[in-house]
Known about the structure:
Layout: E1 3-9, E2 26-27, E3 30-31, H1 32-41, E4 47-52, H2 56-62, E5 68-71, H3 78-89, E6 96-101, H4 109-119, E7 124-130, E8 138-143, E9 146-151, H5 158-161, E10 165-174, H6 175-182, H7 198-206, E11 209-213, H8 226-246, E12 250-251, E13 257-259, E14 264-265, E15 270-271, E16 275-278, E17 282-283, E18 288-289, E19 293-296, E20 299-300, E21 305-306, E22 309-312, E23 315-316, E24 321-322, E25 327-328, E26 333-334, E27 339-351, E28 356-368, E29 373-374, E30 379-381, E31 391-393, E32 398-399, E33 404-406, E34 409-411, E35 416-417, E36 422-423, E37 432-433, H9 445-458
Parallel strand pairs: 1-4, 1-6, 4-5, 7-11, 12-15, 13-16, 14-17, 15-18, 16-19, 17-20, 18-21, 19-22, 20-23, 21-24, 22-25, 23-26, 24-27, 25-27, 26-27, 27-28, 28-31, 29-32, 30-33, 31-34, 32-35, 33-36, 35-37
Antiparallel strand pairs: 2-3, 6-10, 7-10, 8-9, 8-10
Amino acid sequence: MSVRAIVLAAGQGTRMKSPLPKVLHEIAGKPLVSWVVEAVAAIEPDEITVVIGYGAEEVAAALPAGVRTVHQAEQLGTGHAVMVALAELGSVDGDTVVVLPGDSPLFRPETLRNLVESHGGASATLLTAELADPTGYGRVLREGERVVGIVEEKDADQGQRAVGEVAVSTYAFAGAALSAALREVGSDNAQGEYYLTDVIAVMARDGEVRATPAADADEVLGVNSHDQLAAAAATLRGRINAHWMQAGVWMQDPERTYIDAAVVLEPGARIHADVHLLGGTTVGAGAEVGPSVLAADTTIGPEARIWYSVARGAEIGRGAEVGPYASLRQESVLAEKAKVGTFVETKKTTIGSGSKVPHLSYVGDATIGEGTNVGAGTITCNYDGVRKHPTTIGDRVFVGSDTMLVAPVTLGDDSTTGAGSTITKDVPPGALGVERSPQKVVPGYAAKRARRAAREDDE
């Protein structure tokens, strides 16, 4: 028997009050719909179809290869969305059709697997939950133990709204029974829509409807507003952090640690509080990250140290040190045991093994060799107002404090620059480059300045 999965992701999500389609709001670096698709993919269905509508092109672009999309041009309800999908899929007789919402990112694969396994030969099996506050959810209607229907909250009477068991828009259907039941569904309800929930009463009349409860009620919660998005993000953040701690990563405060789903941490890494690891960041064994670090798409090597700093698209080598208050921009590469220190910014720069840029400097479009020290206040003047130019600094170079390196310029191996120099010409290996005006001393200057000020006041 084939399993066909349909993910409903066509709605705008008006309660989000955002032009971004609801299912594209992100948690841990992934859109909501991606979390759902990954969960259902883990049960290995024969096919996954995502129904798209609002922001269709954007939503389709966020989906992985191999996922079919079906466009619901006019959103006339969840039942209509499934009708549109089945029209594209063709006959599903003999198949199990799993339908689930694209805005429920907390599903675990085992929950969906249990739903399919519980389905057996029933006409329909619905996932249910007991919620302390069921507001907004369809209530499960029973006659004794038998499920006889679902009523949406807007159509429920006072007694039905008191029911705590809710349907969570997630089903396993017998394909033929689903197709037949949808033909009987109308739009005579409070919203004037075709509800998928209405097929349950039809199926209960003609066959067996089962209900299987979710093991964890929080798992089935959908996202319809920013507060619900934040709540779901907190849950997923807890799962991600628990996974890495179980894998051997130390965390000072998991509730203040933010790790995207694609991040990879090696056992022995140490993560302090207020750390944000985003995108494809990796952290090596023994590395110490934080407190207060944002690293996006950055490699942090084994035994490296970064604290109170930002790194974007950078590579931090084994045993290298970054911070505090450093900014590594795109294509910053620190070799083994290199250092970028306090209030230093780098961009498109390679810093060789053991070299240091300890404080108050900007280094851009530069290559620095091994064992070099860049003094405080040094700036590579890489932009002439039209285009960028490179600076090359060799091995074992001593760059004096407050040196301006006007690119393109090269400092040879073992060279030195005098503090306060503006270097516009190459400095050969082993040479000293100094550019300063002769110092002038004016005796009695303070007294002369005071007398001149007094005369101006008298005038």
